[in-house]
Every structure is written in structure tokens, then in C-alpha cells.
Write a structure and sequence with these properties.
It contains 18 helices and 15 strands. The protein has 626 residues and is of the alpha+beta class. The longest helix has 20 residues.
């Protein structure tokens, strides 16, 4: 858990920029593996009744009575960090960022067979928000109390701390919390639109209600939920109102929201403030880049002059990131990391990197050059900056340490995380008491018994120094809000990298008691001449619930993208737990061939197969062909 506050400045140095690389490739990490592990982190952070397809096996059910005292069902959602409080503001920002990644990098994620896991991660949050939004003007914004939670060091499954729930309503408003939750629901509605249209519509209905609630009853949420003020202090709510409106405009195209953004551009600071960071608390840079996309695509209409002012601030942000802003640039560590705050600084680097990656895409799509005070910048340089931050996180830094837990061979072994640091229920059946956790587990010099795969820890200090100490929570605690931007960022970089995904490197070895999911055991990277001339286009065409399990109907199109006919195509389909139609099974397990009636897949030709199962997508790969 973290304590955060910051001061807005009229003219502000934002983020650093490293010298541009000649191209976005160079020394690449296995971004596909990194992306997969970040999604594992969200499974480890789940509260509530865990599903049957849960991959993180050292976790168990927890918080099953959340909301009982207030007679409302608040089971589910995410724990924010290394403790067991469910804070609404960072959780909502997390879902917004996951959804943004799923929207902008859908092609990359489906190509990696990760969209199922991604939608599950988003839905674990949005299902909780639907429960928490009990009335049009009521939103339950927190479960648990940071003070009492910090007195105990225990597993979520053993929780003995109070589970009081706190809400905002018309007499106790929280425009920042309601606004961010509206943004999350609007963004998630877009992520689900192609896969579950009815659920997408439900999310959008909640988003509209929450935005209306946030706008009509204005106030800061931590004035109403005062126990949150020590941990996630809000600097104001104007940015969240603009942020929610921007996402609702993107989701609906309704002019009402664009007019709101233009009418309130000055009074809410959208065209006035330049801020230090893009984070769970400060959304201005995100608003400005979203609206720059609207402007560049020619959808500004009568509001074009105002949108140009928003883009001027977006450009200020980007130029400062690249150290091209006439001296108004952010501090950085000697090793090149964005450095803004002593406490859990890495989250600001991950958010900035994601934001510049998407802005690079938007500029590239419209063939626009970024004009900074010190130079004209090609969009590729923004992507180089994003890659530099990702690579620092994954190990290209003075310590040669990966700050993404479980990635690489040198990563933090003593993460400040209760569940990770105490033996799992499967190993230690007896209850670990509140004080016993401190005495027996917190102060142990040994590594955590459970690896919290994919968690982004707080990271180094301003001189790139880092101490892997469980009590050093400023540097070793992972958070959902810091990790969420990495999912989309790693997906983008994976799509560009020459590293061919999971099969390019050996998977990270498992440390201590944990189950990390199934990773490839290491296959040689294919030569350029060995690239398979088959493309898989994966979509989810239907979904339904039976009990607690969600089932998906998956359709996979197999397309011959070469100029030669393909025969004897054999596919390997891993993690298939349901029924499959459209392919013929071979004698070997998990191996399938084209149906008997289709002996040749002609150039440009395609066929498809369908399978139904609960949970994530199966992994489809080519085993052989002629």
C-alpha cells in the first residue's frame, strides 16, 4: 500500500527522454513472457471466490463476507498491493489501463493468445464495480481499513482484520472516484464490445450513470472516505471528470461528452495544467492524448480550436519525456529511469511509457511530426522512450535486476507482499495469526516462499540504488496500478520485437513454492526463412455463465498468407479443456490436422475451427506443414 500526494504546477517538468535509438528493436527482451507474467500478477491479487481456472495456485478464496456488515455484496475485486484493502480509486484506474491496452493492442494480444486472460483480468474488476454501484448515486469505494490492516501480517485467506465498507453518495460525494470508475466502465465496454456485446452494453450503462453522479454531486472522495486519505490522497476531481467524459466520448461518439470537455476545458484545467505525472491520481496527460487522437482523426467539429489547446499540452508532455522541452524536463536517474517520487516511483515510469507508446501510434497513424521547442520529433522516438523504460524495468539498468518479479534470473526475492511471503495454505494448513505473521514470516531473511509473478515493485531510488528487503516497502511493494500499464506496453513491444514470443527464450525457472502457470520449456528461435506462412485470427463469438464459470465460444480462422499452397498442416493446441469442431484429431495428444475434405489450403485461402471452454484461450501453433 502506498501514500501519495502531489502538487500541480502551471509549468512543469514532466518526464525524461533517453537519446532515440535508430530503430525500435535493438536489444530486446522476451516481452511476450513479460506480458504473460503481468497478467499472472492480477490473478494473485484477486479477492473473493477464485475460479476453477485460477493459475496462481498458492492463492485461495478470501474476503467472502465483504460487505456483509453493510448488507451489500462486495465480494470480489482486487487487493491494491501487498496488503488486503480494496481501494476503489487505484482499482478503477487499473481497470481503465488494462482496458486501454486491450482496445489499442487487441491485434497483438489475440496474436499472442492472451485476450482471454486479458478480458478475465478486466472482468474481475468490472464485475466488482457492478456490485459496488448499488444505486444510481451510490458507489461503494473501499473495503477494509489501511490502519488496522497494517497491524497484521497474514495471508488473505486467514484475514482477521475488520472488513468495513465505505461508500460515496449524494450527501458524501466523490467525483474523482465515481469519475474514474465511469472511465473504467466505459473503456471496458469497448474492450468487450467484440466479444460480449450484452456485457459491453451493461458496462456502458453503468459508466453513464456514474459520470452523471460524479458531475452532479461534486467533491473529493477522501473527504467522504477519510480512511483512504492516508494512502491514496486525491489532489482533486476535475481531471477525473474530463477523463470520464473523454472515455465516454470514445465509447459512444455522443457529442454531449465532447461538448462537456470543451465547455470545461479552462475551468477544469484541461487546457491549462501541465502535470508531473500520469497516474492513478492525475489523469490530465491521458485526457490530452485521448483528445489529440480525436483532433487528428478529424472528429473535432466545432470544438477543434479547443482540442488544439488540449493537444498543445499533450505535446508538452511528450516533449518533456524526450528532454526536448526547453529545459522543462523531468528528473531521471543516472541509469535513465523516470524519477518523480521516492515512494513506489516505478509506477510513474510504467504509466508514462504506456502513454507515449499510444501517442506514438496516434501520431504515426495520421503522419504527424511532434514539434518540440528543441527539435522536431518523429513518432518513433516516443516509442523508443517507451521501450527504454520497459527495458530498464526488465533488467537493462545499473543493477542488472528485473523489477518485474519472476522475470529473468535476477529479480526481487523479498517483495513486500503478505501472501507471497507466507507459505501457502496447501503447504501450511494452520492459520497464521496477525502477530505470528510478523514474528515468523515478515522478518525472515529467506526469500518469499511464493513468487508473485509479474508484480512491478516500487523500484530504485534516484541514484538507481535498490535494497531487496521485505521491510523496504517503498521499493519492494508491487501494486496493481503500477503493473496495469505494462500489459498493453509489453503487448505493443512484443508485436514489434524480433523476439518471437514465448518460444524465443527459456522460461524463467520457478523459485520456491509456487505454481506459475505453463510456460514453454524453451524452443530454438526460428530463422527468418522459417517463418510459418499461416496466420491465426482469434475471436470470441459467444459467452455464457454456468454457475461461477464463464464459458466462451472461440472461433479461429486459419489463413494461408503465403503464395504457395499448404498441405499436411498439423496444429498443436495447448490448454484445450473443452470441445473442438472443424479439425481432425491426430493420434498424438493435442495435435490436429485439417478436415479430410480440405486437403490443400490455397494461397490466400482460409478455413476455421471452433471450440468452447471456460477461462482463457487455448494456445494454437503450427507443428508442421508442406
Amino acid at each position: 500500500m502506498e501514500r501519495r500526494s502531489f502538487t500541480l504546477c502551471l509549468v512543469l517538468a514532466i518526464f525524461l527522454g533517453l537519446p532515440a535509438l535508430e530503430k525500435v528493436a535493438g536489444e530486446s527482451f522476451n516481452y511476450g513472457e513479460a506480458m504473460d507474467k503481468t497478467l499472472m500478477f492480477f490473478e494473485a491479487q484477486r479477492s473473493g471466490k477464485l475460479p476453477e481456472n485460477q493459475r496462481v495456485k498458492w492463492r485461495g478464496d478470501s474476503g467472502l463476507r465483504d460487505g456483509n456488515l453493510q448488507r451489500v455484496d462486495l465480494v470480489g475485486g482486487y487487493y491494491d498491493a501487498g496488503d488486503h484493502v480494496k481501494f476503489g480509486l487505484p482499482m478503477a484506474f487499473t481497470v481503465t489501463m488494462l482496458s486501454w491496452g486491450a482496445i489499442d493492442y487487441r491485434k497483438e494480444m489475440t496474436g499472442m493468445n492472451q485476450m482471454g486472460h486479458m478480458l478475465n483480468a478486466i472482468k474481475w474488476g468490472t464485475d466488482y464495480f457492478i456490485k459496488a454501484h448499488t444505486e444510481a448515486d451510490v458507489l461503494w469505494g473501499q473495503v477494509g481499513d489501511g490502519d488496522s490492516d497494517h497491524y497484521c501480517w497474514e495471508r488473505a485467506e486467514d484475514m482477521t482484520t475488520p472488513r468495513n465498507a465505505f461508500k460515496i453518495d449524494s450527501t458524501h460525494p466523490g467525483s474523482d472516484l465515481a469519475g474514474e470508475t465511469a472511465a473504467a466502465m466505459a473503456a471496458a465496454s469497448m474492450a468487450f464490445k467484440l466479444y460480449n456485446s450484452s456485457y459491453s452494453s451493461l458496462l456502458l450503462a453503468h459508466a453513464k450513470q456514474l459520470f452523471s453522479f460524479a458531475d452532479r454531486f461534486r467533491g473529493q472522495y477522501d473527504d467522504s472516505i477519510q480512511s483512504a486519505s492516508q494512502y491514496y490522497t486525491s489532489s482533486g476531481y476535475s481531471d477525473e471528470l474530463l477523463w470520464a467524459a473523454a472515455w465516454l466520448f470514445r465509447a459512444t461518439g455522443e457529442e454531449y461528452y465532447l461538448k462537456y470537455i470543451a465547455d470545461n476545458a479552462v475551468s477544469m484545467g484541461g487546457t491549462g495544467w501541465a502535470v508531473r505525472e500520469f497516474s492513478w491520481d492525475n489523469k490530465y496527460a491521458g485526457v490530452q492524448i485521448l483528445l489529440s487522437k480525436v483532433l487528428m482523426e478529424g472528429h473535432g467539429g466545432a470544438y477543434t480550436p479547443t482540442l488544439k489547446k488540449y493537444q498543445a499540452k499533450a505535446d508538452f508532455f511528450a516533449c518533456a519525456c524526450l528532454q526536448k522541452n526547453d529545459g522543462y524536463n523531468v528528473p531521471r536517474t543516472p541509469g535513465g529511469l523516470v524519477y518523480l517520487h521516492e515512494w513506489n516511483n516505478m509506477q510513474y515510469a510504467s504509466s508514462a511509457a504506456f502513454l507515449l507508446a499510444v501517442y506514438s501510434d496516434y501520431l504515426t497513424a495520421e503522419n504527424v511530426v511532434l514539434k518540440c521547442p528543441d527539435a522536431q520529433i518523429q513518432p518513433l522516438e516516443l516509442l523508443n522512450f517507451a521501450k527504454s523504460q520497459a527495458d530498464y524495468i526488465l533488467g537493462k539498468n545499473p543493477k542488472s535486476i528485473s523489477y518485474l518479479v519472476g522475470f529473468g534470473h535476477n529479480f526481487p526475492l523479498h517483495a513486500h507482499h503478505r501472501g507471497s511471503s507466507i507459505a501457502s495454505m496447501a503447504v501450511l494448513h494452520s492459520t497464521v495469526g496477525c502477530v505470528q505473521g510478523f514474528e515468523s514470516w515478515y522478518h525472515r531473511p529467506e526469500a518469499n516462499p511464493n513468487v508473485i509473478y509479474g508484480g512491478l515493485v516500487g523500484g530504485p531510488d534516484k541514484t538507481d540504488g535498490f535494497s531487496d528487503d521485505r521491510s523496504n516497502y517503498e521499493q519492494t511493494e508491487p501494486t496493481i496500478s503500477g503493473t496495469a500499464p505494462l500489459v498493453g506496453l509489453f503487448s505493443k513491444l512484443h508485436g514489434l520485437s524480433k523476439t518471437p514470443g514465448f518460444h524465443s527464450q527459456k522460461a524463467t525457472p520457478t523459485y520456491h513454492q509456487t505454481t506459475a502457470g505453463s510456460y514453454d520449456k524453451g524452443k530454438p528461435a526460428p530463422r527468418a526463412s522459417d517463418v510459418v506462412p499461416v496466420e491465426f485470427i482469434h475471436s470470441i463469438t459467444s459467452t455464457w455463465n454456468i454457475g461461477r464459470t464463464t464459458y466462451y465460444r472461440h472461433k479461429v480462422i486459419i489463413k494461408n498468407k503465403s503464395q504457395k499452397p499448404i498441405t499436411d498442416l498439423k496444429l498443436e493446441i495447448e490448454n484445450l479443456s473443452g470441445t473442438l469442431w472443424g479439425l481432425d484429431p491426430c493420434q498424438q495428444k493435442n495435435i490436429f490436422g485439417l478436415p479430410q475434405w480440405l486437403k490443400v489450403l490455397q494461397p490466400g485461402g482460409q478455413t476455421s475451427f471452433v471450440y468452447v471452454q471456460g477461462g482463457p484461450q487455448a494456445k494454437v501453433s503450427v507443428l508442421s506443414y508442406h
